[in-house]
């Protein structure tokens, strides 16, 4: 039987070698032979199994005989003598016919002796097979079938291996074992570092510092119940926090932690959990102030992983850390749930402190998180991993880590504020998320600011001189206001939109790009992902020095989405006006309004400021600097005139033309 299975496994190699033969006839012949042999092997195998089962069934019940057969069988096989079977004679004839068809095919190996048959043709001795199988069944105890796990007798060890495999995808197992060895102090390990926070526009949420102080004991009690030496229980709790799961389950765990922390700190919370429910179901309603407290707590949890020891030094010095503004996120959740109307005049200048009225149910909040800020659910797993990693950090070395400029009391002076950077980091699901998260914690590096209209000047030419040669992802933000009392948008109201592109800028008269995102940054945060229908990601067109006549000239400016003439967002050449059209004209980005109460008519607004942030890192910035230096050298070479290349001025055709233009009738002496 083992030889038969080996021959069947060798047939695919024979078919592969047939494709490499030089002539078509040779390939067809070898393929036909492989099909014959495959057919013969299947029929031979079926006959052997049937005879074997039949022979055993005569001695014992068929069911018991089938259970005692173990494959492959290590039994002696008796070769079939040549010409003793019509089946063997037929196959030998095929081999002879195959060897005589084409000389390009390598001939089959003949038997070394008359008593040695071809390798595929073996018949077992049924009597010896039956005797050997019966003896093995009588003397050998029952063993698990092939492919069955050997750990079925110890299900806890199998579950432990499975839990370790899941946990190792998040953190190394040696680190987890080191944390488990100090499981009696797990609340201290998960505790939030001592720090104080403040907000420049409004005071922090009520009971905010009490919520942060209750994080460690709450997470330890919910996911890591006290049990001496329970390594499996520790892994279960860690995987419940950090293992990958469906989008709603991590968010349910986060809400459970928030509700328990509120109960521990004495803060109001409308979220409720049924005590017998473990699948992540949540009930209740969140008020606007509670949503703001939850979002601020999630940002603080993300901040704690950036500079945990630097915060300790800041707390010892009495420094206070700056909280981001999350009002646009809270308003986005209220508008998504229908608690606040999009066309309501109250959205302009909306603040959490003055909010009152209907809240958001837990189901509506979950739907908003999944559709708008899916990264919010990973805040708990990030916090637990960062706290566990901090156990191995050397306190002496890590005290040199500072909290950056998070202790600065200066308000955000750029369009990319901390709150907007954090909102974008929660919305995008790629490598740029970490870049924006760092910007929300320590602020964006000013070296990444490629262009700012208030500093570099307005206009497409000034914009192009700053972004030319940058071949990396970039974020374009603009602030505008609608004046003149338009029909759609209220007059004299400021709003902001942004575009996230994943490639550089190009001067083209057509749309280009592979991927991008549109977002509304103020007053309501929204993120519009690519729809996948079209690829009109970006349009950047300006006149070059060599102007040519065009019957239908293409518009000059920046555009995103839509089509030429009906762009979703269009910025004119002077950077003075921006036009935002309804999503019906755009098949590149998802549907949704970028401005409150936008309506169907195009909105034309005055631009206040434009910023472009490079997100490609130092390597991309260095490549742009090299490109600019090379272009400056070429421009300088084109401006210089090499007078030596003209030769003698008296004999040059330029002098002759100038003399003829000045006085064509002047008598000139002809030299002979």
List the main descriptive attributes of the protein structure presented here:
single chain, 672 residues, alpha+beta, ten-stranded antiparallel β-sheet, three-stranded antiparallel β-sheet, 12% strand
Account of the 3D structure:
By secondary structure, the chain is of the alpha+beta class. It has 24 helices and 17 strands. Strands 8, 9, 10, 11, 12, 13, 14, 15, 16 and 17 form a 10-stranded antiparallel beta sheet that branches. It has a 3-stranded antiparallel beta sheet with strand order 4-5-7. The relative contact order is 0.06.
Brief rundown of the structure:
The chain is an alpha+beta fold and 672 residues long. The protein has 24 helices and 17 strands.
Blueprint of the fold:
Elements (H helix, E strand, L loop, with lengths): L1 H17 L5 H36 L2 H7 L8 E3 L6 H14 L22 E3 L1 H14 L15 H14 L4 H9 L4 H4 L7 E2 L9 H6 L1 H9 L7 H12 L5 H18 L5 E2 L10 E4 L1 H17 L3 H9 L4 E2 L4 H11 L22 E2 H11 L6 H11 L5 H4 L19 H10 L4 H11 L6 E4 H4 L3 H8 L6 E9 L10 E9 L14 E7 L3 E3 L10 E3 L15 E7 L2 E7 L4 E4 L22 E12 L2 H23 L13 H10 L10
Low-confidence stretches: 56-153, 395-410
Broad shape: extended
Instruction: Please tell me the overall pLDDT.
Output: 75
The main sheet comes to:
10 strands, antiparallel
SS strand fraction: 5-15%
């Amino acid at each position: 039987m083992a030889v038969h299975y080996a021959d069947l496994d060798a047939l695919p190699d024979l078919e592969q070698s047939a494709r490499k033969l030089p002539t078509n006839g040779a390939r067809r012949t070898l393929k036909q032979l492989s099909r014959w042999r495959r057919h013969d092997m299947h029929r031979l195998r079926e006959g052997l199994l049937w005879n074997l089962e039949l022979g055993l069934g005569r001695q014992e019940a068929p069911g018991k005989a089938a259970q005692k057969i173990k494959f492959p069988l290590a039994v002696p096989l008796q070769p079939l003598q040549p010409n003793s079977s019509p089946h063997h004679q037929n196959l030998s004839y095929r081999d002879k016919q195959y060897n005589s068809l084409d000389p390009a095919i390598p001939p089959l190996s003949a038997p070394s002796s008359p008593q040695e048959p071809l390798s595929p043709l073996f018949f077992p001795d049924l009597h010896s097979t039956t005797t050997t199988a019966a003896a093995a069944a009588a003397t050998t105890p029952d063993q698990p079938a092939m492919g069955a796990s050997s750990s079925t007798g110890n299900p806890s060890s199998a579950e432990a291996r499975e839990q370790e495999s899941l946990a190792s995808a998040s953190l190394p197992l040696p680190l987890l074992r080191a944390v488990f060895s100090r499981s009696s102090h797990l609340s201290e390990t998960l505790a939030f570092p001592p720090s104080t926070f403040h907000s420049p526009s409004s005071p922090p949420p009520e009971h905010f510092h009490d919520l942060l102080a209750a994080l460690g004991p709450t997470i330890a009690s919910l996911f890591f119940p006290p049990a001496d030496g329970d390594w499996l229980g520790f892994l279960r709790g860690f995987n419940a926090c950090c293992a990958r799961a469906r989008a709603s389950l991590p968010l349910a765990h986060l809400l459970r932690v928030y509700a328990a922390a509120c109960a521990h700190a004495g803060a109001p919370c409308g979220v409720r959990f049924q005590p017998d429910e473990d699948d992540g179901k949540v009930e209740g309603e969140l008020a606007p102030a509670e949503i703001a407290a939850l979002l601020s707590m999630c940002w603080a949890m993300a901040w704690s992983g950036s500079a945990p020891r630097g915060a300790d030094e800041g707390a010892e010095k009495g420094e206070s850390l700056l909280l981001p503004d999350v009002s646009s996120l809270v308003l986005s959740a209220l508008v998504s749930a229908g608690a606040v109307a999009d066309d309501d005049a109250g959205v302009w200048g909306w603040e959490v402190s003055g909010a009152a009225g209907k809240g958001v149910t837990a189901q509506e909040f979950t739907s908003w998180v999944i559709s708008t800020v899916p990264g919010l659910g990973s805040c708990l797993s990030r916090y637990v991993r960062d706290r566990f990693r901090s156990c191995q950090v050397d306190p002496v070395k890590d005290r040199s880590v500072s909290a950056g400029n998070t202790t600065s009391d200066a308000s955000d002076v750029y369009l990319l504020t901390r709150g907007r950077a954090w909102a974008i980091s929660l919305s995008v699901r790629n490598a740029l998320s970490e870049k924006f998260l760092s910007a929300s914690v320590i602020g964006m590096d000013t070296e990444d600011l490629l262009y700012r209209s208030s500093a570099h000047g307005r206009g497409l030419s000034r914009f192009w001189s700053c972004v030319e040669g940058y071949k990396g992802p970039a974020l374009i933000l603009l602030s505008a206001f609608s004046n003149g009392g338009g029909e759609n948008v209220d007059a004299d109201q400021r709003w902001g939109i942004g575009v996230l592109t994943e490639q550089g800028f190009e001067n083209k008269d057509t749309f280009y790009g592979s991927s991008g995102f549109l977002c509304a940054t103020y007053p309501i945060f929204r993120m519009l992902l690519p729809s996948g229908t079209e690829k009109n990601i970006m349009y950047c067109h300006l006149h070059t020095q060599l102007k040519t006549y065009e019957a239908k000239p293409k518009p000059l400016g920046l555009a995103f989405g839509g089509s030429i003439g009906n762009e979703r967002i269009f910025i004119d050449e002077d950077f003075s006006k921006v036009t935002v059209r309804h999503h019906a004209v755009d098949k590149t980005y998802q549907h949704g309004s970028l401005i409150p109460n936008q309506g169907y008519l195009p909105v034309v607004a005055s631009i206040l400021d434009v910023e472009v942030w490079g997100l490609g890192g130092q390597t991309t910035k260095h490549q742009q600097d090299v490109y600019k230096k090379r272009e400056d050298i070429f421009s300088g070479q084109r401006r210089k005139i090499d007078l030596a290349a003209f030769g003698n001025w008296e004999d040059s055709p330029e002098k002759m033309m100038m003399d003829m233009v000045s006085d064509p009738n002047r008598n000139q002496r002809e030299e002979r």
